[in-house]
Amino acid sequence: MTDSLSGRLPAPTRSAPAYAGQGSSANLADILERVLDKGVVIAGDIQINLLDIELLTIKLRLLVASVDKAKEMGIDWWEHDPSLSSRASSRAPSAGLTEENERLRAEIARLRATAGPEPVPEAESEGRAGHE
Predict the structure, then answer these.
(1) CA 87 to chain centroid
(2) Strand ranges (DSSP E) for the chain?
(3) Which of 8, 25, 42, 120 would be a feasible disulfide site paired with 62, CB 3.0-4.6 Å?
């Protein structure tokens, strides 16, 4: 008996057209374009507890969006990070804060000098009157 299965089974046919792969990549590109255009936020928290004692909490926040969409939302940290942008300032951010702090202190001192002596709060003035 030399009866083979190939003689009894129909020959395999190709039901999907040759361009089916192109359609799926086009759909993927459309989906990616929509996601980047609208933006997607994925948020999740992971908590590890042992006997009602919180040992570890990890908060995950992920934003997937295009650069243009991120700028619309006010997110542009990559423009100010010297390691990511050649246009970003190479000085440390704390240096800018120090300069601003000094400027604000000088402004406060100038305002105090033009306003005259500071008034004594009521609680302190009542305490002084009782001790006299």
Answers:
(1) 21
(2) 40-50, 53-64
(3) 42
Each residue of 57-102: pLDDT tens digit?
Answer: 999 988 888 888 888 888 888 787 777 777 766 555 566 788 899 9
Radius of gyration of the chain (CA): 34
Total Cβ atoms within 10 A of residue 69: 16
Q: What is the pTM of this model?
A: 0.36
| CA geometry: angle 95, 97, 100, nearest 5 deg | 110
The encoded tokens of residue 85 equal 């942008």
Distance, CA of 13 to CA of 88 (rounded, Å): 60
The DSSP line for 16-54 is S-TTHHHHHHHHHHHHHHHHHHH-EEEEEEEEEEETTEE
Question: What tokens does 130 get?
Answer: 């009782």
Could you tell me how many helices (H) and strands (E) the chain has, helices first? Answer: 6, 2
